[in-house]
# Entry
Amino acid sequence: MAGLFSKFLGDPNERFLKNLQPLVEEINRLEKKTEGLTNNELKSKTEDFKEFLAKGGLVEDILPEVFSVVREAAKRNLNQRHFDAQILGGIVLHQGKIAEMKTGEGKTLTSTLPVYLNALEGKGVHVVTVNDYLSRRDAVWMGQIYHFLGLSVSCINHDSSYIYDPSFAKEEPQENEIFNFQFPISKQISNSNDQNRLDKIRDTLGSFKVVHEFLKPCSRKEAYAADITYGTNNEFAFDYLRDNMAYQKEQVVQREWHYAIVDEIDSILIDEARTPLIISVPDEESAELYKTFASIVPRLNAEEHYSVDEKQKAVSLTEEGIERVEKLLGIGDIYTEKGMKYVHHLNQALRAHVIFRRDKDYVVRNGEVIIIDEFTGRMMPGRRWSEGLHQAIEAKEGVDIQKESRTLASVTFQNYFKLYKKLSGMTGTALTSAEEFDKVYGLEVVVVPTNKPMIREDNSDLVYAAEEGKIKAVVEEIKERHKKGQPVLVGTVSIDKNEYLSALLKKEGVAHRLLNAKHHEEEGEIIAQAGKKGMVTVATNMAGRGVDIVLGGNPSSADEANDVCSAGGLYVLGTERHEARRIDDQLRGRSGRQGDPGESRFFVSLEDDLMRIFGSDKIKNMMRTLKIPEDQPIENKMITRAIGSAQAKIEGMNFDIRKHLLEYDNVLNKQRGKIYGLRRKALFANKDELGEIITGFFDHAGEDISKLSEKEREFGKEDFANAERNLLLRVIDMLWTDHLEAMDYMRSSVNLRAYGQRDPLIEYKNEGARMFKQMEDSMGDTFVKLILNVQKTQGMKNEESTFRNSKLEIRNSRPKVGRNAPCPCGSGKKYKKCCGK
Ligand code: ADP
Ligand code: MG
# Structure
């Protein structure tokens, strides 16, 4: 074991792991005894543990025994025994930290240890995956362990929820059907009663276990009632938002936020952190302005009319540019109060035109502009850029412009995951973002050593002066490796480059599979086959994260695996360095899993975005003075280092941007917590508690509550309580969404004010607090006024909420606040003069 620790680990990390060593040994010592238990005895441990905890026993006290029980259950059900490294990882996860474990180390199995342990408390454990498919895979795969031990397992997907239920399997497996637990679940059906057949399949597949069709559809609420729930970050967070829009307590599906393990945590908490989740309604705002500006912008010239700052992704107009726009619009001065709207549209149209590129930042599909996640290369249907940028891009592409939308509820992943009493995560790449995890989430990163030594060779970069030379070399390299039967996984940074390279390979007659966000349906399956002999796979970065690449492609063909091993294992070829080192590491990590042979290399040119924008002049000058020919690479440690430091610089910049966003979001988050708390109280309050809230409102408004008893007689007790509750929820929702909108406007206005040397964040905090207070005040008053005038004939019947059916956008018939109507913040001023300013 000692050798495991000696590899370049930082001291504190090493010390930390050393301290865990006695615990690992204790768990190992328990193995013999646990092995001796019958199945029934092993199963009955769950009840014993639960009882122990119910009597006030500490989770920590049973950890060793619990881990040994889970390990034994995995041995009996999956033919897999948790490695010591996985036991370590399990402890780290249980402690609410991030376990950095390389790709292929078996994080899925690792997580079963803390998942089961924490689920014993009966408050539900959530396991967060990067996509729906993985949530199903893991629920079924690991479900076998939990189910055996008597815990319930569920899975929430975008439009369905399932409970793990082995008796649900319907069909017989076909003879000779190849079973691979990863794909595709629906086709891999087995009959749980036919134990012989199952065992036979298990024998032929060695340690691999068949995935059965064991997922039985259930309601969302049932899914959340399970001991363990698998699902994506999106589903968990959207359910949270939807729960806070419920009008009947039965509609609330989530329970507690007890403990969550986030798989691929860097992807979710860092890469996806910049787009908040939003539930919105369309707002009637004309699409014409977007069209007008989309037609004006192409008539401006770069440099003369505007300047571009690629680093900051910003465009700004020059004096000439402003004049030109004013002329084209036929208006005198655009920078007046009235013109501000134009400035905003113009700015977004410019960014849409100059900065955002089709097939790199987004794709156009079926008349829709769909964002491509810059880190994962994955399409993100349903997500929209905010502040009109999305509409500006729709105008640029000439597709239908979606109506501006009005936010009903929103949350960032940061803030959603902070709800959990304990949060932990796992990924192969956390260390380079350790500071961010620590500062933003208070999560510590622990590097868990690999089970077997890693023998992949990571070569230093080959740097070319020009893109063309680089690409030629890349094609040559692929051809050569392919010829000797070595599988090659090629990583590209964008879809257009991915397709370009594919075309070149086709011309050269190199058979290959193409994988980008446009074909993400088969993503997992293609990636899983990327280790086959001679296979060439051209993929965008990180496509198929979470899917295992087995050398030889098929777990049962040892011969092919040997061939691939002697050809050098999987060769990962990066065609460009990414902005974040983490993403490069992810790509490299595809190779060399579990002690496999493998190799990686990045090909870089000075024309790559990263080098062009961030690369140091030193490198460029050096290449120039050395007069290096286009197709001659230089391989130089200094350059590789310089690239690394350029990346670190950008990482820092992006971290700052996210931190900044978060600071703003925290203001709103506190307010959201208060409002949702009140809302929940109203939703779940019994008659007396409801009465208390309402009495408070009447006191605050200085109104006499005894009027109300007349209404109560008129309605009948029950109906009136319902009417009160409904109205209260409605008032909260109405004022809260108006408040959200007002905060949005306020935020852009404080940013404009930043010129006056005032810190916009402080302004935002102060102003936000004032507006919130006003909203709280007017909440009671509004309620009192409305309840006194409520008519039975109007039917305050239960609101039939439609939000379960629709996705991101929710239909809502409530009229929008008119510009000239009194401001809902209760200031008495017109909306346009107050919060709507
Ligand atoms: P990761 O998420 O860390 O990349 P996975 O959880 O996908 O890795 O597991 C990778 C492969 O390793 C899977 O095929 C899995 O069955 C196998 N594996 C994991 N743990 C063990 C173990 N203890 N013994 C045998 N095989 C294991
Ligand atoms: Mg994984």
